[in-house]
Design brief:
Length: about 210
């Protein structure tokens, strides 16, 4: 629809968010089913419950205007969902798949945070302060969810990195019992640096007069 006013832009943003929430509600169960870690499954389930609440808030905002809820295809989130599905179809270990799921869920969160932030700004400019407060409540919940996913990601990555480091670490070499021999020529050649130059001076013999 043509955007002839800030109100039109506001409604268009709300319609985009409405479809985004619907996509997320449909997608999160697939991600949760594929996740191995219990904490991740619980976080995704909680996010799905919150998305239903966010949808109710959008319904309420449209009601404030005497409008029926609007929805238009949210192409941006659809691309993120497609990437998430592609990740699920790739072969991966359980830990790596969990890390990929967290990444996909955080992408969804960041899209929503940006979109809700814009919608809240439009509501404030239109002096729809009650609606701005509703959008802020959703924003705060999205932020907390992203923080939770970030903590899970950090713990997951640390665990995976340690496992791979242990797997690919080179074998330890036993220390040689033979004393290290340093030639005078080597010490002279290295004496061009400040610290070693001092050492070389200290090693120089003192010739009595």
């Amino acid at each position: 629809m043509p955007l002839a006013s800030l109100k039109d832009l506001y409604f268009d943003e709300l319609a985009d968010l409405y479809d985004a929430e619907m996509q997320i509600i449909r997608t999160l169960p697939r991600l949760a089913e594929a996740a191995r870690a219990r904490e991740l499954r619980e976080a995704l389930k909680k996010h799905g419950d919150q998305s239903r609440l966010h949808l109710e808030r959008l319904d309420l905002i449209f009601t404030h205007w005497g409008e029926r809820p609007r929805s238009r295809p949210c192409v941006g989130l659809a691309g993120i969902v497609q990437e998430a599905d592609n990740r699920l179809n790739q072969e991966a270990t359980d830990d790596v798949r969990d890390a990929a799921i967290i990444g996909s869920a955080r992408r969804m969160e960041h899209y929503e945070i940006a979109a809700y932030s814009c919608a809240r700004g439009y509501a404030r400019q239109l002096n729809r302060l009650d609606e701005a407060r509703l959008l802020q409540e959703t924003l705060s919940e999205e932020g907390r969810t992203d923080h939770c996913l970030s903590d899970l990601a950090e713990a997951q990555i640390k665990a995976d990195a340690q496992s791979e480091a242990d797997l690919y670490a080179p074998p330890l070499v036993a220390a040689s019992s033979e004393p290290e021999i340093v030639s005078r020529g080597t010490a002279t050649a290295c004496a061009v640096t400040g610290d070693l130059e001092v050492s070389a001076v200290k090693l120089s013999p003192v010739i009595p007069r």
